[in-house]
Design brief:
membrane; Growth Hormone, Chain: A; mainly alpha; MFS_dom
Length: 429
Amino acid sequence: MGAGMFKPLKIRAYRSLFGAQVFSDLGNWFDFVALQVIVAYHWGLDETAVASVIIALGLPWVIIGPFASVFVDRLPKKTVMIVCLILRIIFVGGLFFAPNLYYLLLFVFLKGTAAALYDPARQSTIRMTVPDEQLPEAVTLSQLSVNTMKILGPALGGGIIAFFGVKSPFLFEAAGFLIAIIFLMMMPKLDETAYVEEIKTTKEIPQKSSYWKDLFDGLKHIAKTPLLKISIILSSVAFFIIFLYDGLFVFLAQDLGFTKENFGLLISSVGLGSVVGSLLLGQWTNWKHKPIHLMSTTALLSGTLIIAVGLGSMGILNLPQLVWVIGAFLLGLLGSGEAVPYGYVLQSETPKQMMGRVSAAATSMQTFSMLIAPAIGALLAKLTSVSVVMIGAGTATCLLGIFVLVFILRKLKALQTNKETAPVQKSTG
């Protein structure tokens, strides 16, 4: 199974594409810590400013992402990706020299736009370089890169700030995009004629309507698949809660006595915990029989940790910094107990031919949750305090876990009674 997943890497064109994706994904997340540190520590701005940065990061994926494929489909994919990477290097330069928050937000949005245009071109190229029978493996590898870099990017960014200074991650990020361009340059020429002919045969059907049709097909499949539906709702709500306090994390760190150098250590610990959690779940796979049980149990445990952090920033829990670093590690460890089972359910409960549609529908729900949460978090922090928001988020996470566990146990009881009465139903049906 493990070796099978890496089969597409034997294809030269896909190998170049995957190499470029790893460095491109890393770039997407590399400056995540740097932006927050610049806004909170370097410029001394408040929660609203950090929330606005997180919103500017996510907005292009919602506004531009779904419609980008309309233009991308008519252009050579390799060229689109290289141009987008060159633009991202320019916009990262803009972030490096940004004198204030307004310039910073503009370049964050522009960089996100280039990334949202790059992604549909990459998705199309996967289709063009990989035979249909290896598509699931290629999509899984692609997802693996996205998830790993989501963990490694912020962790590395935090470490680089500690060693080289507050704006240094931008230079490393630009270098990463340059390496991605080199990978794409090495990609053999793609035969796009057959692909274009295939699109032409759809005649006057606009790509936009086909996107919406695909999206609604995905939604229909989610609605009638209970396990998938529960896991997407659980994951979207969990994302909402995480992003509710995510932009405030830097202020909590200040309350707990962390400096701008130590803040990177805290984020790195969350990242390390996520990697360890993923590796453990890869080794111990019995959870596959009860993935939702694992998701809701980890929600309950991480909720308790989040409450503890809130109490710590209030000064009620006075613990040494090492304990908070271990707590951050455990938070990451438990986070993978939500993310890995979600990925498994998404793969196992979705037919191969619907994978793109269902994951697009699921991602749009999650992105919406992630986008509205920072603004609500910042508003609540203004009305109350950062500590109160953290305690509230932790309590909500615990309640979410308890609710889903109770819901599952009731469902299982109902299924058990259905099984017992099944022969009777058969005879009447």
